[in-house]
């Protein structure tokens, strides 16, 4: 009897040991994943970004807790609204270095060539394109390839991009998925000349991912703030902001020496920095920023107005201010596209377009 009981006990013990061993393996796997996650600084992000759905829930904000949830968040809201108006007739082309006159409720004159000093007068014709489920994100068209109508959507933190064949496909939520090989972070990306440019999460490096060949190049930026929540753009949790304009490609970041906003001009062919411009404007005063026609525009911390502008070609501030949107909610992104002279905006879960209306300053 005692012998049988002892045997039973040791079998039980063996089973326990086996179970424990399995659990250890699982724990180890989880540990490995966590290390991976920590290394790519996901943790910093997870602690900060409220779950997208939490917005709809009254009470305490909830927090995103898994990588799956993040990729799920790429999906669109069921109740998404299809509010894009059809563009109106094109405006008149500009005459020898002056602005084109914008078309009525439509695109500005496609051939309007601006003079060197093209400053923004105002933003006109705001249009809702669609509603997104996520509060933070970036939506982009290629800012250089003229007949590419594809739209890409990047969540705040992921390795995946959604690719839509057109704005209509974005509105009907029909997309493909592109793996860009490294985790990206923030809302400062751009698609330019067939490549997706992004901050490699947790690092001081910018990646250029060729959407066609899938080739990845990286560029390390010295003396930039890139982690520990010392954001360039606090409202959108963005350390590096890529920008394309009539002059090519720029990179906006905050210096780790004095926290001022620095703009680097990039050489697209070699993917290297050709010059640095120290705007001396403190990152702490910046809500968001974009570049159009060689001028950096920075919004106030409520993202309601553009309150600072800096001529990057002349290397001095310019006296330009204009309204952007009513304060409130999260403005995740605003980017200018020299291809269609629109501002691409992600505001309070809506992706929107504004027509940029320039004045020539002569
Ligand atoms: C959008 O598409 C994804 C998959 O492509 C799907 O999982 C999701 O449910 C769709 N969202 C809506 C609102 O239809
Ligand atoms: C525009 O420039 C061209 C060439 O410089 C000139 O021939 C033409 O008269 C100009 N047009 C106007 C409207 O100024
Ligand atoms: C876009 O949608 C928001 C939220 O529904 C609404 O308040 C706003 O008026 C819309 N804007 C345009 C230009 O339709
Ligand atoms: C930017 O310029 C200011 C004023 O000249 C200077 O004090 C500051 O150190 C410069 N910052 C960088 C990052 O070069
Ligand atoms: C900036 O422009 C405004 C309006 O045009 C003007 O009132 C103001 O004096 C200008 N400020 C500077 C510093 O030039």
TrEMBL record:
Keywords: Secreted, Signal
UniProt keyword Secreted, yes or no: yes
SMART domains according to UniProt: OLF
Biased composition (Basic and acidic residues): 69-84
Family annotation (InterPro entries): Olfac-like_dom (IPR003112), Olfactomedin-like_domain (IPR050605)
Compartments, as annotated in UniProt: Secreted
Name recorded for this polypeptide: Gliomedin
Lineage: Eukaryota, Metazoa, Chordata, Craniata, Vertebrata
């Amino acid at each position: 009897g005692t012998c049988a009981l002892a045997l039973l006990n040791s079998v039980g013990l063996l089973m326990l040991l086996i179970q424990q061993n399995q659990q250890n393996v699982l724990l180890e796997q989880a540990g490995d994943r966590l290390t991976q996650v920590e290394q790519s600084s996901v943790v910093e992000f997870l602690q900060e970004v409220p779950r997208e759905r939490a917005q709809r829930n009254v009470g305490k904000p909830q927090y995103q807790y898994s990588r799956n949830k993040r990729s799920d968040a790429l999906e669109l809201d069921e109740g998404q609204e299809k509010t894009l108006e059809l563009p109106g007739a094109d405006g008149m082309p500009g005459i020898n270095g002056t602005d084109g006159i914008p078309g009525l409720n439509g695109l500005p004159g496609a051939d309007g060539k601006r003079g060197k000093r093209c400053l923004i007068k105002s933003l006109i014709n705001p249009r809702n394109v669609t509603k997104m489920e996520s509060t933070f994100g970036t939506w982009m068209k290629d800012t250089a390839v003229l007949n590419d109508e594809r739209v890409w959507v990047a969540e705040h933190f992921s390795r995946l991009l959604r690719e839509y064949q057109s704005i209509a496909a974005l509105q009907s939520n029909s997309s493909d998925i592109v793996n860009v090989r490294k985790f990206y972070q923030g809302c400062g990306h751009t698609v330019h000349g067939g490549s997706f440019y992004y901050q490699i999460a947790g690092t001081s490096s910018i990646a250029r991912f060729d959407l066609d060949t899938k080739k990845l190049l990286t560029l390390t930026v010295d003396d930039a703030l890139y982690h520990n929540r010392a954001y360039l753009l606090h409202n959108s949790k963005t350390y590096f902001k890529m920008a394309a304009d009539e002059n090519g490609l720029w990179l906006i970041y905050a210096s780790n020496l004095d926290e001022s906003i620095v703009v680097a001009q990039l050489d697209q062919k070699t993917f290297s920095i050709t010059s640095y411009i120290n705007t001396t404007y403190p990152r702490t005063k910046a809500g968001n920023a974009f570049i159009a026609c060689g001028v950096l525009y920075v919004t106030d911390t409520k993202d309601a107005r553009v309150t600072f502008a800096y001529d990057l070609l002349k290397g001095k501030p310019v006296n330009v201010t204009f309204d952007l949107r009513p304060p409130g909610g999260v403005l995740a992104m605003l980017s200018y596209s020299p291809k269609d002279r629109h501002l691409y905006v992600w505001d309070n879960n809506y992706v929107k377009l504004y027509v940029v209306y320039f004045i020539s300053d002569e």
